[in-house]
Amino acid sequence: MKLKEAIATTRLSVGHLVSGRDALEQDVSWVQIIDHPDIEPWVDHGHLLLTTGYNWPKDEVGAANIIRALHKKGLSGVVLAVPQFLEHFPSASIDVARDLNFPLIELPWEVPFSEVTQSIHREIVDHQAQLIVRSEHIHNELTNAALGGLGLQDLAETLGELIKRPVFFCDMDGRTLGQYLVAGGISEETPDPSQRKSEDLNPGKQLLDNLEKIGLLRRIAESKHPVSIPHVLELNDTPRVSYPIRIRGELLGIAWINETDSPLGELDLRAVEHAGTVASLMLSHQRDLSAQEARMGYTFVDSLLEGQFESTPSTLERANLLGWDPDEDYRVCAFLLNEPIPLSREGFFRRERLAEALKKALSKTKTPALLSMSLNQIHLLLPAKIEPESIWAEVGSRGATMAISRIMAGVAGMRRAAEDVAILLPILKPGKIHYFDEMLLPLVLQGDVQARKLFLQKTLDPLKQLRHFDVSMDTLTVLTEEGFHLANTAKRLGLHISSLRYRVERMQEVMNVSFEDVEARFRLQLAIKLYTASSDESAAG
């Protein structure tokens, strides 16, 4: 119990506080009654000393030194029964105690020490019993969260509810793996990770960067206990207690707890440690599952490319662990080996060697190896910031060719990107790389139905941003038929030349092209022909 609580709830309340008014928050772990000259060896940190003063030093030096010695031992304070042997603490003792902010209390002689010791010891024992009960409750709740929860999100919510503080878990890139928000002591609904904005997915990045700058990140990584973070980072709502999440010595993430208006208690800190241990076990289990998925055919990447991935908190958490970010831009790169199907034994090993070469090339750029292998193909999810040519240069052709999709993001984007490379695969040339945007027009000219559909969407869909899509299409149709001659187009449409120029400017703006560009004119003329043909086919059907 706190010293201030002991003073308020026991017979110490009739005593007089001589010094240490600002040190009453310290804990009292036990009460000792000692009246022989050699006091120091008999007391320990957190003890409250009761004495009659019978053997208290009478000389100034001794009276001062005993206070220094007891303060150094970490006592919570000294209670002197007055005035039987001493009317008051010696002035030398009081002066030193006030300098050290060390509590001294003078208690009337009539108050039996037994009443004080019994009351305080009873409170201490009751408090310890309550701690044991609450500690067991915390242990059970966190363990149940690990056994029956959805992942670190569920664990963060459980820990936050237990200690009534904001909690979030992040990986070493600062991305949030789970969080719990508290406002005014009332739990707020934690947003579904799949619905968070991109800026919300990485709230710890600035914090980690600042911690690394001032040298605290290494201290957290090496600590076996919660580490308090001072308010020196100039961040809003800065978490002040951290705990490392490790797997076999490897730092995978950090648990953050905001102390809000008061420091965390001992039991809260134990809860943080236990939650950190549970988080480590959960991440270890997820890592094992991820490895198993890789061995069983790269299920995660396959589910994205096939459109089978379901955005739930647990699947997104696992995706995060694997290194895929739903808000990041990616290209899907497909490597097609010059090998017959089914693969021969040598063909199988060649595919494995190419996969290993890709992993090594990606590791040089610290890029997660998000691969999938099937038959004579290897698919790779490559962040848009990495140029495909750099990967191709690292692995060499190795008897393969490479198809590269458009830049996409999110679950639906990965599916569309996979469709891009699927369209390219039949026309790939060995030993070369092919971009979808570069190959789309040749595919259209070869009569590929899917390519034609994508070409029309890419070319004409921007016009849907304008108020009257049909009017814009009619204008563009006549414009292409008249060879982009404005006067002839205006005459056919019955428009003033100024009105036509305004329409043309708006169309060029939303389509991000110039009608003066020869290639742009060809693409628009082709798109209009295809659009008209498809409209006629629909009308005939």
From TrEMBL:
InterPro entries: CdaR-like_regulators, CdaR_GGDEF, GAF-like_dom_sf, PucR_C-HTH_dom, PucR_C-HTH_sf, PucR_dom. Residues 473-529 form the PucR C-terminal helix-turn-helix domain. It comes from the Bacteria. Residues 311-419 form the CdaR GGDEF-like domain. Pfam families: GGDEF_2, HTH_30, PucR. Gene3D superfamilies: 3.30.450.40, PucR C-terminal helix-turn-helix domain (1.10.10.2840). Residues 10-124 form the Purine catabolism PurC-like domain. Belongs to the CdaR family. This is Transcriptional regulator. It comes from Undibacterium terreum. The lineage of its organism: Bacteria, Pseudomonadati, Pseudomonadota, Betaproteobacteria, Burkholderiales.
